[in-house]
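explain this chain.
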Amino acid sequence: ADKALLIAQKKGKNRYVIYDVEKHGAVQKDDKNKIAYLSDNKKGNKSIRLIGDITDRLASGNLPDITELLNEIRIHFGLDSAYIFEGGNMETLYHCGDGDSLTAEYIFTPQYNKRFNGDMALAVDNVNELEGRADEAFAALTKQHIFGAFQYLITDGTEIKGLISFNYINRFKKWAVDDVNYLTILCRIISAIINF
């Protein structure tokens, strides 16, 4: 039950999971300490390892190529495209994956940019949820075939300087809470590297 609850929590709000040992793996027990481990401790968390590897490279002075870094993150999380936009027209600065160069001017509309949380992040599970709430963003994302996105605002504290966007093209996906947290950390790292 604990493992099923943990899996459901990682997938987001209002979910339940029926535990299946073949799908989710066996629960490891420590009978001596009466603890049930919910994952194989030896494997570790691949996303935390990715963040650690990137941080280690930066700490050693090895600044990555931004497009290669975006692609590494995109592939790790199974995303279709990644963009970094900048400037008054929010034009493509870096891009990898599916799609052509885009613009993201919709980011300046108050109906859309007020949706970002205090960490400057926004996860859109289904672009249709924007219809009637942020119509300019809905129209632009739909035209670009972006049906789901994780976006991160790059600001100087008061002014929007850029946008990092990881996207699902022509498909929807519910963002896992852990993935949103990992992507937020990675976007903070990227924004520090590019330093608009």
The mean pLDDT is 87. The CA atoms of residues 29 and 36 lie 4 Å apart. The longest strand covers residues 146-155. The helical segments are 2-11, 21-24, 46-59, 66-76, 110-113, 135-143, 177-194.
